[in-house]
Amino acid sequence: MSTVTVLTLVPNAGDRLPRCLESVRWADDIFCVVDPRTSDGSDEVARSFTPHVVTHEYINAANQRNWAIPQITTEWTLVLDADEWLSDELIAKIKQVINDPNSLDGYEIKRMSYFFGKLIRHCGWHRDYNLRLFRTKKGHYLEQRVHSKVLVDGTVGYIHEEMYHDAYRTFDEYFATFQRFTTWGAQDAYDKGKRARLVDITLRPILRFIKMYLIRQGFRDGYHGAVLCGLAACSVFTKYAKLWNLERINNLKK
After folding, report:
1. What dotted CATH number matches 4-168?
2. In a 3-state reduction of DSSP, which class is residue 215?
């Protein structure tokens, strides 16, 4: 039978981590990489589930995972965030996949997310697939600061059984991530040679709201949907405003 390691990065997530790790007790190994800035006891929570817990300096998620993957010895790796967990149906499907000799080299898994305690069924969040299961020797993360994806050297398929994501419970949580991700997103874009146009700052946020709220029916999620779509539009605006500011600052240095 094939073997699988669950790779989880551990920030301050002591209130969410037990549900995450409980859902993968069946795995052959659970490998937790702790951010040294973690201060809420999440590292001890991780050790209550697995002895395979290490601390490594955090730069970004892609860098952390690329450091960890070469240390994994099982045939398969399943990447799971500390605020995510697996459904029983997904567990059964993963076991089937890793033990099938005809399986592909990687799989995009459907993820359903909660926002302020409500499961979001529209806004585009209901079509969220993430490549999380892959043959260890064939996968690595694209080196970028935010929203990095796994690059698989081989064939990739889809798993429609669901994993769940407890995304944001409060505005404080949301804006802590918002600040970090918009800054990193702007820097990634700048490093790739992209520059902010006026249309990016003015029209892109409006189009994001229209796409999520109207086209992808975020209005069907009620107040939660309206707030989520508004915040997403604000995130687009802030990212491109920060990209514009990076260009402005660097031009002043010339």
Report:
1. 3.90.550.10
2. helix
Mean model confidence pLDDT for the chain: 95
Q: How many CB atoms lie within 10 A of CB 73?
A: 11
Tokens of 236: 């687009």
User: What's the pTM value of the predicted model, to 2 decimals?
Assistant: 0.91
Q: Where are the domains of the chain?
A: 4-168, 171-253
143-168: pLDDT as tens digits: 888 888 999 999 999 999 999 999 89
Q: Which of 182, 230, 227, 240 is nearest to 206 (CA)?
A: 230
Distance CA 148, CA 226 (A): 27
Which string of DSSP letters, residue by residue, matches 72-137? --SSEEEE--TTEEE-HHHHHHHHHHHT-TT--SEEEEEEEEEETTEE--STTGGGEEEEEEEEGG
Amino acid occupying residue 54? V
Element (H, E) at 32: strand 29-34
Backbone φ, ψ for residue 194 (5° rounding)? -80, 150
